[in-house]
Amino acid sequence: MKTRNQPILLAALGLTMWVIQACSSGSSSLQSGMNCAISAAQDTTRSNAVALSISCGGGTAPYSVASLTLAGATPDSVTGTSTGFSSTTTLTVYDYSYSNFSGLAGTVAVYDSASVSSQAVGYSFTVTTSSGSTSTGSCTIAAGNSSPSIGQSVTFTLTTDTFGSSPYTFNSFSAGSYGTVSQSPVKISDTQSQAVASFSQTGTQTVSASVYDNMGATRSCSTTVTVGGTSTTTGSGSLSCAGWASPTAISRGQGTTVGVTITSSYQAWLQEVHFAPNMGITGSYTSATTAQLYFPYSGTYPITFLVKDINGNQATCNSASNVTVY
Questions:
Q1: Residue-wise pLDDT tens digits, 270-279
Q2: Terminus-to-terminus CA distance in the chain, angstroms?
Q3: Is 8-128 assigned to CATH 2.30.29?
């Protein structure tokens, strides 16, 4: 008899089955007609666990599990009836290396009472998100100030509905391309966290976040703020700026002059020039308040300036018009 060690596709069940050991004389589980259906889902009631359902028919009952792997390794522990079950059993598989099992692959080998464990039939499975973790739910983001100025700190309150299994954790908080997060989400209750961000570009800016339940299921949400062009000062004293660019419409490789008009109680200068996306932009300062920039690629580029005075005060402002490169 030929050694049978290649996977056999069971189209009707959507499962891959293989014989753990070559068939020998006598009846193997495969020869006796045993078939099993396997499903696995993240457990909604236990942390770090998967609910593995095994339903077998054919062959000679009862049935037993010979081996089990999850993500290519032996799990930390397994509870439930794994030997001598009549047709169906549900095992709780624990692996403390994971909190989110969705998408992980595993294998289980089963044999019937007319066979021995070395003749077990193997099945593969993929863990799905549990029904509890896919229940409806959403999160929201509320801005403490929906119309901040450039550089002004805004407190965002992140709130989630209850879904899946608590506790809930907000992460992946983003203030977008022109935002700076100064405080990542800090929990203020089981369903709320707060984060702080500021923005360096005028216009509508998008803030987003994700919240995870205890089983790894996730919800995402976002909100927008409208950032005004008024410069914002840090430190004591009076300091503000107004940005400009000339010309604002240029060809690729052509230079343009950008700069600021500074209003200050003390001596002040242009400290930094910011632009996004970078895209190979080069340049140099030409005076205390101006710089020359060169743009190798087409696109529209907003320009943001940071000015500073001798007392350490800082202010930011934007160019009145974006630079458009053709």
A1: 998 887 666 7
A2: 74
A3: no
